[in-house]
Amino acid sequence: MQQLMDRFLRYVKIDTQSDPSSETTPSTEKQWDLAYKLVEELKEIGMIEVTIDDNAYIMATLPSNVDKEVPVIGFISHFDTTPDFSGTNVKPKIVENYDGGDVVLNLDKKIVLSPFYFDDLVQYQGQTLITTDGTTLLGADDKAGIAEIITAMEYLITHPEIEHGKIRVGFTPDEEIGRGAHKFDVEKFGAEWAYTMDGSQVGELEYENFNAASAKVIIKGTSVHPGYAKGKMVNAISIANEFVSILPPEETPQNTSGREGFFHVHSMKGEIEHAEFELIIRDHDEVQFQRRKKLLNDIVSNLNNTYGDCITMELKDQYFNMREKVEPVFHIVEIAKQAMESLGIDPIIKPIRGGTDGSQLSFKGLPCPNIFAGGHNFHGKYEYVPVESMQKAVEVIVKICELVGNRDF
Predict the structure, then answer these.
(1) Which tens digit of pLDDT belongs to each residue from 210-254?
(2) In the chain, what is the straight-line distance between the N-terminal and C-terminal CA atoms, in Å?
(3) What is the dihedral of CA 258, 203, 341, 360, to 10 degrees?
(4) How would you classify the pairing of strands 129-131 and 93-95?
(5) Taking the CA atoms of the chain, what radius of gyration do you get in angstroms?
(6) How far apart are CA 291 and CA 247, in angstroms?
(7) CA dist 333 → 218, 329, 408 (Å)
(8) What pTM, to 2 d.p., does this model score?
(9) Fewer CB atoms near the end CB (10 Å): N or C, the chain?
(10) What distance in Å separates the CA atoms of residue 302 and residue 233, rounded to the nearest whole number?
(11) What is the rounded CA–CA span in Å between residue 253 and residue 262?
């Protein structure tokens, strides 16, 4: 466990924040800093066929140690962190034997991680937590996953008595800005299926995610002196507000859960002559997903009829629900479930209220359910991960490899 913790702490101290405004891959130069270190570490532990391409996609192989045909499987995580919150100068704090109460992250700024607000904390009493210092995110999303995969591979290398087939591992940039799988070479990876280690609490096993689209709405207005504006002014700000008010108020992130979808307006700016806003659409159900897109197009059409073709909208699909690609090969979920149960972990099978590299990879021909990495409160200053949860994730990876290596296909 100490080795796993030390590895994770090394990773989170390296800033790998991605940038959605960049057109390069990776989107930030600083992602290379960790990428190169991971390549060297994979070589040091004894992995073979360690490669990194021009876009910082890393792949490596653990050869099979069984003398029969076994499917090649993979494990994948991303090394970038979200642009939503600072990942610069991360100073992780270690809380040993957590007592179940408040954790003061930053005394000067009065930032407290409290079970009264984050009730998941209480289940980790007596364990070792790694938290932030209240000024940055932690980066367990998804450096915990990387640390777990490398630790599991090292364990298999040093314990050759555990039988397994050929294992491929992959580490990607830019997952947090939706591009983690865009340039992932599935054919080169060469696995029959894989697992992303990018979930949250112990037991999470996910093979469903949102269908996703984004929209940018631009409104052109006409500015006239307000004293003489009757019948002449077209106020772009007012039209933007009217557009947003038509969206169902109960279908927002703060009012939905489970498989319920939503509209989410996440940025807006404007003046009388020009206003624009951006929103995302999310829904697990394909029919409802299409309904949501139609509603946006209908609003644009109706408002243009009212105000004179002043609105343009760019609507783009982003990713789709991987359930469609995973269900035909459902044994890959069952193997992960069996691995957890054999380790005394209760599987929590539920839809992801978000996206994952596994979604895009599944549609590129690599079915890819998602497994817990152990962290909580991603993308902000209250992020934390119990070390024991990370250890459980390592054990699940090892057990999956063992189950596949001993299974008849």
Answers:
(1) 999 999 999 999 999 999 999 999 999 999 999 999 999 999 999
(2) 34
(3) 70
(4) antiparallel
(5) 23
(6) 12
(7) 43, 8, 16
(8) 0.89
(9) C
(10) 19
(11) 6
Give me the amino acid identity at 151: T
- Give CA–CA dist 14/101, Å, rounded: 30
In the annotation, is 69 catalytic? no
What are the pLDDT digits (tens) for 349-408?
Answer: 989 888 788 999 999 999 999 999 999 999 999 999 999 999 999 999 999 999 999 988
Whole-Å CA distances, 277 to 22, 181, 270, 307: 20, 27, 8, 18
333 secondary structure, DSSP code: H
Q: Give 42-68 pLDDT, tens digit per residue.
A: 999 999 999 999 999 999 999 999 999
Please check whether residue 218 is in contact with residue 270, taking contact to mean a CB–CB distance below 8 angstroms. Answer: no
Beta bridge partners of 311: 219
- Given a contact cutoff of 8 angstroms between Cβ atoms, the answer to whether 71 and 404 are in contact is yes
Q: Which long-range contacts (CB under 8 A, 24 or more apart) does 328-336 make?
A: 329/193, 329/367, 332/193, 332/195, 332/367, 332/369, 333/205, 333/207, 333/369, 335/400, 335/403, 335/404, 335/407, 336/195, 336/205, 336/369, 336/371, 336/396, 336/400
Question: Phi and psi of 286, rounded to 5°?
Answer: -65, -40
Q: Answer yes or no: are the C-beta atoms of 167 and 73 closer than 8 Å.
A: yes
Angle at Cα 124 formed by Cα 120 and Cα 128, nearest 5°? 130
Q: Tell me how far apart the alpha carbons of residues 342 and 206 are, in angstroms, rounded to a whole number.
A: 18
**Which position among 19, 175, 176, 204 bears the catalytic label?**
175
Cβ atoms of 165 and 137 closer than 8 Å: no
Measured CA distances, 78 to 16, 135, 181 (Å): 10, 22, 10
Q: Is 80 a catalytic residue?
A: yes
CA distance 137 to 71: 37
CA dist 394 and 77 (Å) reads 13
Model pLDDT, residue 317: 93
Give the whole-angstrom CA distance, residue 71 versus residue 338: 17
Given strand 73-78, what is the order of strands in its sheet?
A: 48-52, 58-62, 167-172, 73-78, 193-199, 370-372, 204-206, 348-349
Query: Strand locations in 241-359, DSSP E?
Result: 262-270, 274-283, 311-319, 348-349
Candidate list 80, 141, 142, 208, residue with the active-site label = 80
* Cβ-proximal residues to 248 (8 Å cutoff; 6+ apart), any chain: 263
Amino acid at 28: T
